[in-house]
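Action item from last week, closing it out:
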Amino acid sequence: MRNQRNFSSEFERQVVEELLGGESHPAQLCRRYNISSSLLYHWKDQYSQGKFNNEPTEEAALRDRIEKLERLVGKLILENGFLKRGLQNSLNQSRINGRLSPDGRTSSALSEGGVDS
């Protein structure tokens, strides 16, 4: 079983400030200090909440919020594209099977003499 390492609050704070300062990328910091990315982001969350004897930074909290919203927008864009392709495939399949006319009306409306008024 592996021994759990303990890091000082000052070290954790230094690493997070280096990350937030833009001096290094997260992957670089993880390699340099031999820590996992999940630990780094855990420290970042703690820092933004003021748990390293620092004032909670509004800028860090806003940055985290922006990152979460950007991930959500990306997810919604992917879902929207998936649903559009599914709808288009469904409409194309209906046209192939003869249930829809090229203008999008159902075949029953065409057979009943349905006329747009």
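Closing note: The radius of gyration is 27 Å.
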